[in-house]
Design goal:
This protein is an alpha/beta fold and 361 residues long. The chain is 31% helix and 16% strand. The strands form three sheets. An eight-stranded parallel β-sheet has the order 1-9-8-6-5-4-3-2. It starts with 9 loop residues before the first helix and ends in a 29-residue tail after the last helix. The relative contact order is 0.16.
Amino acid sequence: MTGPAPLPTRLERRLGVTLPLLQAGMGGVAGPELCGAVSRAGAGGVLGLYKAPPEQVRRLIADTAARTDRPFGINLVPEVLAPDRCRAQLDAALGVLPERAFVTFYGLPAPDLTATAVRAGLPVVVQVGTAHAAGRALDAGVDVVVLQGVEAGGHLLGTLPALPLLRAVRRDHPDAVLAVAGGIATGADLARAVDEGADGAMAGTLFAAARESEAHPEFKRRIVAAGASDTVVTTVFDIGWPNRPHRVLRNALTAPGPRRSARFIATAAGPGGRRLPVARYSAAVPSVRTEGRIADMAMYCGDSCERITATASAADLVERIRADYGRALHETRPERADHAGHAGHAGHVDHVDHEGECHGE
Ligand SMILES: Cc1cc2nc3c(=O)[nH]c(=O)nc-3n(C[C@H](O)[C@H](O)[C@H](O)COP(=O)(O)O)c2cc1C
């Protein structure tokens, strides 16, 4: 049985989604199929663009836009590219993104990148890991700040768990649209974040294991089998993305011991069907296009794997979270339930703020 649909949060209204949940943009994992499926289900699907050159950026966006007529986002990671290459990615994307799209950045981008994205008029989402960076993102005029906790899978922007970071940022920015990343795998996790003052959340690991994800089947199998104690924060997978700790599944390379040679251990499909070598200690994830020693590669995974127990379609994941979120929030915050039976998008709620107060115009 599902409870009454909760009132939409500011994040839902800002991005036009019907559940306050974003799927993390994940390079090599979150392609058009996953992004499109999450978006069709009413959550925020995000296309991982990582190091894609401009022509591929345009192709991936066109493919995604053809799969969904609901909002979806793109994800850029400025720190893995030279500034001019990241700029070229953003320009290519802004040239083809539909009006319903939004732009997400991993880490605080250079001021000119943020300004270009903000000026383009699409909502801008920036993921940070400290209260200081959150303040700078808000000063730059971004629409949504995602606060990444240290329990998150993938590269880590800070050292605090997500909820203490949220409390610190919320104290200083009561009106900001804030989401948390890290530790989100269920509707109860999402309800807890909203109950603590978030406007929504972002989940990566959960969707990396989804049927439509481009993660290698062995990577998905390991996420489903793992518990939080099977993850570790390390710096070893630094080829291609240096100077940033990352949470991965433990494997032979994360075990203590001397660093081994960076010889090639796998290949990945490149442009024109060419096979490109993947070095041991590469930051690249094992994807459906990778062949070789998958077990020795970087399998980014958050503590949330503890509550991920099966591979499911993105639509099933989103619907389960939607039902459990409504139920859990109804138990803790019955005043947030919409007794008119709102299903997520009706016009009259556009003027109801996060705390359920009506402002009108
Ligand atoms: C497999 C994987 C790949 C990721 N790649 C990216 C990326 O390319 N860009 C990005 O902004 N974040 C990336 N992240 C981090 C997410 O944005 C987010 O912080 C994280 O997934 C949240 O924690 P969770 O995985 O426990 O849900 C990645 C995470 C995972 C698990």
